Amino acid sequence: MIPLLDRPLVQFGLALAAVLILPLVMRSGTLASEILIYGLAVAACNLLLGYTGLLSFGQGIFFGLGSYVAGLGLVRAGLPAPVMLLLSLALGALVAAAVGWVSIRRQGVYFVMLTLAFSQMFYFLAYTFSGLTGGDNGLLDIPRPRLAGTVLSDPWTYYAFVAVLFLGLFAALQRVALSTFGRTLLAIRDNEGRAGAIGYPVRAFKVAAFAISGAVTAFAGALHAMLIGVAPLSNIDYHTSETLLIMTIVGGSANLFASLLGAGAYLLAADALSAIWPRWLLLLGLLLIVITLFLQRGLWGLIEHAVALVTRAPPPDGPAPDRPVVTDPAVAPVAEALPASDAGRAPEVAR
Amino acid sequence: MSAPILATDALGVRYGSFVALQDVTLRIAENSVHSIIGPNGAGKTTLFHALTGRIAPSAGRIALAGRDITRTADHERVRLGLARSFQVTSLFPTLSVRENLRLAAQGKTPWQALAPWRRAEANRPALAMAETMLERLDLTRVALRAAGALSHGQQRRLEVGMAMAAAPKVILLDEPTSGMGIDDIAAMTALIRDLGRDHTVLFIEHNMGIVMNISDTVTVMRAGRVLVEGPPARVRDDPEVRRAYLGNMITGDLTPARAHVS
Amino acid sequence: MTYLFQILNGLGLGMLYFLLAVGLSIIFGLLQFVNFAHGAFYLLGAYLAYEGVERGLSFWVAMPLAALVVAGLAALTERLLLRRVYKLPHTFHILVTVGLALVVQELVIIIWGPIGGNVAPPEALSGVMILGDFVYPEYRLFVIGFTAILAAGLWWLLDRTRLGAIVRAGSESPANMALLGYDTLRINTAVFALGAGLAGLAGALAAPIRGVEPFMGVEALGIAFVVVVIGGMGSYAGALAAGILVGIAQSLMATLWPEGARLVIYLGMAGIIMAMPRGLFGRA
Q1: C35 versus A41: which is more confidently predicted?
Q2: What ipTM score was computed for the predicted complex, to two decimals?
Q3: What is the pTM of this model?
Q4: Contact at 8 Å (CB) between A340 and B150?
Q5: Which residue of A has its CA nearest to B73?
């Protein structure tokens, strides 16, 4: 009864397939690794946007933080990579919980503006303390991790390393999304006031969602710094936050695989277009406008429609029995897509 | 009379200089059906907001089962056994009916739900409660449907069911029949009457037929104060209430009640 | 004396921030619409003034013209595009205006190049004012005076005119406006154009002070958000007070700790939000 494409095993299968297919069809192992790394960060962003209904413009903070933590630990302290990855996870959770805790004091648009202002604050923090972060130049000479005595310097070897971690964290995020916690997040997204009224400490849930999202994002940031050998200032700036958010919406916030889709589509398009035309961001801007007007469920929505055409079934919009379908909060309530069987259905309006 | 399950002492709420509620003292007896009536703007919903902790009272005290909850957070009051339904239907519209009820039942143990590794199915009591409620509300047939896609009558029943699913000591219903058709009203009336057997029900209602039919006690409010309180028959015949209601400030009809209450 | 200098600088800067923030605030107030393209209108205003002066127009013509053109373009955008997305959730307001901002920024780079340029202050104000041993650029004094007059005019517009009454009523309850029989569509366009025009004007006024470059829009957007967050959304007095506060803080920090100037602004914002979640003048 759960729409086929939304079943957890199918979702994981799609992610696994993507991980296996990328090396077959792509020439650059670096770009392929980047897709998985951003895929993780975007899935984490989706946990906030799609599952909790929180549009955070601060995801770049955690991504950049992860990069710096990895860089500082590996370059300055000479700690091993696994330790730094775990540390980025922990610090990401900590900082995200703090940013989240302050930001959720306001709701809606104010919340969005606060996260954006925090993203600027952390950017200037990194910019100002250039002794630690390398400022404009970034933290240089970050080594690739070492595994069984060999440095993973070959792009595809590093890809394999990233791929294993990606699948592990993707499964973990799936578990979170399906857990009693994740399902309560959906309730908060749907109707925060009622979630509070039936007993949930809504703020604690939001902060926890932030912490998990921040941890995964920082982890991705650490992997990214090891990939490119630098922890650049740009990893913590406004544009990283913006890009992660755009990838999330482009992919569609309905499920976690859509996030990998969004990251992949964005990075591949950026790679191809930027080679042809340096002002490709103009096209990206136009694309965002087109998505807003015509493709509100993102690329995943397109896939659902394609599958529906092939199987001649209507696109899955309804709730599933045990696991409610994660519907894009940004789209009109499902109610409108479903026929009401009982006559005289009155709209939910205050008098 | 045994100690009241829910009590307020000289409760007051002000918004700036506007006094929304003043000197409201209530004693709600356990396992009784207690209704609050009064014209629009009498402070009924404000009273509910204060009782459930949505707004902080500016004066007075609230006690639940002898325990002072005047300053207790709203979600904490749910755990202590106070649940409410809303005048304007407030559900999780994209989630299934069953999931709505499961979430409401799980709201009793909210911190447990904070565990991101724990499966929802692990909370068997909540699952069982959701099933029980589906049957009691006659919603089993539509258990898998999105709550937002239900008919209005079904949504109102689910709205009340959400409050019941927390297995509260006291259940507060804010105009449970608002906007309902005649058949749905009958079903809702039966449901509330049934609820009164094993719960304490405090409800706001404009339909006098229902109020006079199923209430053990009726409190009449006007302009933020308690005007009269007593059994339905006495309240109905109270001259002050008659006067207040002749001003046509209330919807509903006083007459049908006579046939039922003797 | 350096402090007086910096405080005056900060006042001018702050008044420009006020223009930016109040535009953002009234658009949000009436349309419940977060305009992430607000910085792009500021950017456009600056570049149009730059272009006008480059083509030999007097700054006195180029500056108001830039603001008017920005307002016109904003009205057009509102009618052709934004009107279609009001009903969508905030996510899409943000997405579409982020897209718009990218398009404007890239167009600016295509037309004027990535380097940017300088705008000479108008001839009459290119000198300095000397008062004892205190020396101050005349153009900056003009900005302070001019924006103060503008702020007063704006207050009059919002507080004393019918348009202002409509905007305020609409912010309280958008549904009321339609009930009252106002042509909401045209009012929406007008208010959006006014808000964007103010951003454009701020850009044009800022151009002779800070020059023009393609990324000034993003920076301005961040500052406008900070001012609105500190001042309290929807509050005219809040935007004014917070704008000046941020401007002066930034300007003073520029002498005390130049690298950390902007950091301090954002830290201050975080502090104020912790203490007063609704901002200095925010309503419930």
Answers
A1: A41
A2: 0.89
A3: 0.86
A4: yes
A5: A201
